[in-house]
Structures are given as C-alpha cells and as structure tokens.
Write a structure and sequence with these properties.
Shape: globular
Strand order of the largest sheet: 1-7-6-5-4-3-2
Number of helices: 3
Strand content: 35-45%
Largest sheet: 7 strands, antiparallel
Structural class: alpha+beta
Radius of gyration: 15 Å
C-alpha cells in the first residue's frame, strides 16, 4: 500500500529541507509526532536511527536508508510483519519556490489485513505533516 501527499511551499528548497531534515524539531512543528529520540550520534546519514512516537501508533525505530540533501531522505521501520518506508522529497519547481512530497509505502504479509484499516489514518497524517512543515518553512524561523 502506498500513500502520497504533495504541497506547494512559499519558501526555498533549502528552507524546506532545513525544516524536513531537522527531525528532532518535528514534535514542535507537526502534530503527528509526539517524541523523537536520536539513537545514533553525529550528523544524520544513512544508518542513523531514531525512536519515534506518534499518536494512535506504536512507538517505532526508524532507520535512515537514503540521505541526499537538499532533495530527499527516506527511512524505514519494521514491526510485526509490516515494513514502512517513508520518503521526504523537497523540489524546486517553476512558478512556485518549492514542493514537498511525502510518501509512505507499507509492505508485508499483514498489509492486506491492516492496510484498509490504516489507510485513512496514514493519509490524514501525511496531510497534517505536509501542512505542519509548510507552516514551519514559511515562517521566519
């Protein structure tokens, strides 16, 4: 199952990346994240791990699987028969300063059972996350 949300943001691609890649600030910026705890030290790179707690979802460990500033990062979380891969893409485009696209792919043997139940929540969370990041990127700081 794949869900996607794109939003236009009146800010530079670099500003959007600054907001999206500042994972530890997500609880202040987006209502779908209660807590973020880095489990690895240093700058974020492939292999960095984070403990993430979201409302209505079990706590999960997310590992960065792609890190390409200022364009894209992806991370993956595995739990009980489901693998979630979340992508975060910042793009410069004509006519607007930038576009943010958030995706989540759910795979695994439980997805046919859990997917229909989770799709509404996942879709709503992607929209809330995109709007929260838009507000943060368009603000002065």
């Amino acid at each position: 199952m794949r869900c996607e949300e794109s939003i236009e943001i009146e800010a530079s691609q670099e500003r959007v990346w600054e907001v999206v890649s500042d994972i530890e600030s997500w609880p202040r910026r987006i209502e779908t994240v209660d807590t973020v705890e880095p489990l690895t030290s240093g700058q974020i790179a492939v292999g960095s791990r984070f403990r993430l707690k979201q409302p209505k979802l079990p706590e999960g460990i997310w590992e960065v699987t792609a890190w390409d500033p200022p364009t894209y990062f992806e991370w993956r979380q595995r739990s009980g028969g489901v693998t979630n891969t979340a992508g975060h893409r910042s793009e410069a485009s004509e006519g607007i300063p930038s576009r943010l696209t958030l995706t989540i792919d759910m795979r695994g043997f439980l997805v046919p059972i859990m997917g229909p139940v989770m799709k509404g929540l996942v879709t709503r969370y992607l929209a809330l996350e995109a709007h929260g990041m838009k507000r943060a990127a368009e603000s002065s700081g």
